[in-house]
Write a structure and sequence with these properties.
extended; mainly alpha; 5 helices
């Protein structure tokens, strides 16, 4: 069992040392310090919450649902047009892809089942690193 824990610690350190993780943390820090990004995210969350409460409060017509979707999409586009937020989002997606590939590899070795398009034969694949 101690070998498994040792390997888990090594994997954790490898994750923290990865370029994807470093880029994610840098983008996160940049976003947390950017007043415009923070304001946009707060606005988006407020709109999302208000619209969710409206939907939960009772019956909403199809027309109003379309308006709600439109309002939310417009607010989301505004958020994602901010370069700091979109940089963070891109870094997050790249890191999540690495984690997904890692989970697929672990699943393959534990179950023998292929998930996420991984064949288990890494000889012709570069996506794991």
């Amino acid at each position: 069992m101690s070998e498994i824990l040792t390997k888990a610690r090594e994997l954790g350190q490898a994750i923290v040392d990865s370029e994807e993780y470093k880029a994610l943390k840098a983008a996160e820090e940049k976003q947390e310090k950017d007043e415009e990004a923070i304001a946009l995210l707060v606005e988006y969350n407020n709109v999302r919450k208000a619209l969710a409460e409206e939907i939960q409060s009772g019956e909403v017509s199809d027309e109003r649902m379309a308006e709600i979707r439109s309002e939310l999409e417009e607010c989301y586009e505004k958020v994602m047009s901010n370069s700091v937020i979109s940089e963070y989002h891109a870094a997050q997606q790249k890191f999540e892809a690495v984690v997904g590939q890692m989970n697929s590899i672990l699943t393959y070795f534990m179950t023998g089942e292929i998930s996420g398009g991984c064949s288990g034969n890494c000889s012709g694949c570069s996506s794991c690193g």
